[in-house]
Amino acid sequence: MEVIIQSSSQEASALGARLVARLVRRKPSAVLGLATGSTPLPLYRDLIRLHREEKLDFGAVTSFNLDEYLGLPPAHPASYHHFMRENLFRHLNIPEENTHIPDGLTTDVPAFCQAYEEAIRMAGGLDLQILGIGGDGHIGFNEPGSSLVSRTRIKSLTPRTRQDNARYFSTEDEIPRHVITMGVGTIMESQEIVLLAFGEGKAEAVAAAVEGPITASVPASILQLHERATILLDEAAAGDLRRSAYYRWIYDHKPAWQEI
Predict the structure, then answer these.
(1) For residues 67 and 102, is the Cβ–Cβ distance under 8 A?
(2) pLDDT per residue over 167-184, tens digit each?
(3) Contact yes or no for 197/4 (Cβ under 8 A)
(4) Active-site entry in 67, 103, 117, 234
(5) Residue from 10, 120, 144, 9 nearest 66 by CA
(6) Is 91 labeled as catalytic in the residue annotation?
(7) How far is residue 119's CA from residue 104's CA, in Å, rounded to a whole number?
(8) What does each C-alpha distance from 75 to 37, 113, 175 come to in angstroms?
(9) What tens digit of pLDDT does each residue of 66-91 get?
(10) What is the full DSSP assignment across 15-48?
(11) In the annotation, is 67 catalytic?
(12) CB 30: neighbour CB atoms within 10 A?
């Protein structure tokens, strides 16, 4: 695990975009794991800029999204289908048939989840997974207590997570109670992971994930065991880290061939 602290979310996101771009240039048929929510938006804007200004080519890329609400049709403004289309896919040349997002309207959840796992395997596995982190340490929608070897499945959302997502819905009753999410085990099989966390509200979760014990109570803590996990933070999200000075020193003294 490498922890990189930048002065702003924009600077941290730019590093994340460069990691994605480096992969796509090296492997045009890369398989990307994508996240939703406000956290990855600056990274996605940078990818769009790189596509437009530097001709970064997504024509052979395949993507798999982490999750989707159960019960929401793709056209619903709060669905992750809608989010990805509006904030990334329609701005890139990635073929629609290469993009995969869990089906919130599936009538057979177990069968769909098994098929989603198989589709990832058939694509060759995830080369790079983009993650955010919840205020309680969840990744994807793997809430505290989730199995650290779990696969794609249905999950019930905690009251805290439903409240965190309330701003996307008109009333509390509209907020879904269930989702389909990649499991922690699925995420951990990605060749590379980039986790973004910004703002003071994420500081406690970041510290628990990076410096605390590995525990299902903080699902993101499993990333300590990943060979190539990069944690990109702004100053506020790094505020509770005990070893922040060490992380800064390491990043500032990387050999040239390791620089992003």
Answers:
(1) yes
(2) 888 888 888 999 999 999
(3) no
(4) 67
(5) 120
(6) no
(7) 17
(8) 17, 21, 16
(9) 999 999 999 999 999 999 999 999 99
(10) HHHHHHHHHHHH-TT-EEEE--SSTTHHHHHHHH
(11) yes
(12) 21
Q: Write down the residue that tokens 């890329």 correspond to.
A: 61
CATH fold of the domain at 2-254: Rossmann fold (3.40.50)
Q: Can you tell me the distance from the alpha carbon of 237 to that of 37, in angstroms, rounded to the nearest whole number?
A: 16
34 has pLDDT over 90: yes
Domain ranges of the chain: 2-254
Average pLDDT over residues 27-49: 97
Q: SS3 string of 199-251?
A: CHHHHHHHHHHHHCCCECCEHHHHHHHCCCEEEEEECCCCCCCCCHHHHHHHH
Structural tokens at position 29? 């048929």
Active site residue 138: yes
Q: What is the mean pLDDT of the chain?
A: 96
Q: Provide the token pair at 88.
A: 């990334």
At CA 166, angle to CA 239 and CA 77, rounded to 5?
115
The active-site residue out of 117, 136, 192, 234 is 136
Is 234 catalytic? The answer is no
Q: Is residue 157 pLDDT above 90, yes or no? A: no
Across 146-157, average pLDDT: 96
